[in-house]
Amino acid sequence: MIAQNLNHIRAQIRQAALDYKRDPASILLLAVSKTRPAEDIVAAYQAGQRHFGESYCQEALKKQQELGAFNISWHFIGPIQSNKTKALAAHFDWIHSVDTLKIAQRLSEQRPSALAPLNVCLQVNISGEASKSGIALDELPQMCRLVAELPNLKLRGVMAIPAPREDFEQQREPYKVLYQAVAKLDNPELDTFSFGMTGDLKAAIAEGSTIVRIGTALFGARM
Ligand SMILES: *Cc1c(COP(=O)(O)O)cnc(C)c1O
């Protein structure tokens, strides 16, 4: 079932990319495995999936221990508490949800020196009410400047979780605004747009997504 879902999502990504004249290979599928048992991750892994996203630190660390033998790239996409930065810095390859300078500084200080710089995205609160997390759009230029200076982080781009919308054009709007704000910074290091979930995958790809974060369509509805 998971393998079938995965094939279906890959086909959707490919089709959306072609519809918007984009290279399908420029869009990474992140399998959001929060609340899912390690067996579900194994099933997706056996079907070729390598990038997995988790939202809760303790839960993720437990699964990482169970899955130590697998060559998985781990992405953290949830809210970050400062008492978790040490574990996050040591056990993840990517953090999508950086939204304060203090958290960024702690992640940089706590990144083990044996590891490559930690890939990070700044979470931007693009439609106000949707989520309490994320910097405001007008803070983006300064936050990019400050976070880019931190030695053990590699600032890659932005992440957004817009308010859910049914209408396709309304889904596109916040992503368009954020994409353009990043483009204006004219920084080639910012190559990552973590845009799109199960409900707005196509709209996100239409507006430049390079990482889509898919849970429900892959693993089924969360309990
Ligand atoms: C849970 C979650 C997802 C996946 O959402 P689905 O609608 O299940 O695809 C994506 N991004 C974040 C930040 C999440 O917390």
UniProtKB/TrEMBL annotation:
Name of this chain's protein: Pyridoxal phosphate homeostasis protein
Cofactor(s) recorded in Swiss-Prot or TrEMBL: pyridoxal 5'-phosphate
Family to which this protein belongs: Belongs to the pyridoxal phosphate-binding protein YggS/PROSC family.
Function: Pyridoxal 5'-phosphate (PLP)-binding protein, which is involved in PLP homeostasis.
SUPFAM superfamilies reported for this sequence: PLP-binding barrel
Species for this entry: Candidatus Methylobacter favarea
Keywords: Pyridoxal phosphate
The UniProt record lists the keyword ATP-binding: no
Residues modified as N6-(pyridoxal phosphate)lysine: 34
Transmembrane feature ranges: none
Pfam families reported for this sequence: Ala_racemase_N
GO MF entries: pyridoxal phosphate binding
Keyword Cell division listed: no
Superkingdom: Bacteria
Domain Alanine racemase N-terminal: from-to ranges: 6-222
